[in-house]
TrEMBL record:
Gene3D superfamilies: 3.30.2010.20. The lineage of its organism: Bacteria, Pseudomonadati, Pseudomonadota, Alphaproteobacteria, Caulobacterales. It comes from the Bacteria. This is Metallopeptidase family protein. It comes from Peiella sedimenti.
């Protein structure tokens, strides 16, 4: 049984993401700027197609927007930056692993997507994570 006594909802994951964001060091939070965090069950089929993915269970998070390294004050206003957390794949990973709390997993996915907001690639993010261990 989990803390919720039921399957955690989108609102539950959104709350965990807000709490994780608030725990980040203030200079880091300020550098993130305006990024909306959205929780949905799965990525839209168009998003999966754009990423060349077939299985929605394989995507637990996504950064959407122009990353900070590619922005210029001379550019027109970019689309809003958003981080999507996909509840069902996150819950499946959480249940399958059994070695990490849900809040910690949400925090991990959120920080990964914030890394993309800062212009880091998956390889960059994994290298940082590997160096931390």
């Amino acid at each position: 049984m989990n803390l919720y006594g039921r399957e955690p909802s989108n609102d539950d994951l959104a709350q965990l993401a807000r709490e994780a964001f608030e725990r980040l060091p203030e200079p880091f939070r300020l550098a993130v700027g305006a990024v909306a965090i959205r929780v949905t069950d799965f990525a839209e089929p168009e998003v999966l197609a754009d990423l060349g993915m077939d299985d929605p269970w394989d995507l637990s998070g996504l950064y959407s927007g122009v990353d900070l390294t590619r922005r210029s004050i001379l550019d027109p206003l970019p689309e809003p930056s958003e981080i999507f957390l996909y509840r069902r794949p996150i819950l499946a990973e959480w249940a399958g692993r059994g070695d990490i709390g849900l809040g910690r997993l949400v925090e991990h996915v959120l920080i990964h997507e914030i890394g993309h907001h800062f212009g880091l690639s998956d390889d960059d993010i994994h290298a940082i994570e590997d160096g931390r261990r």
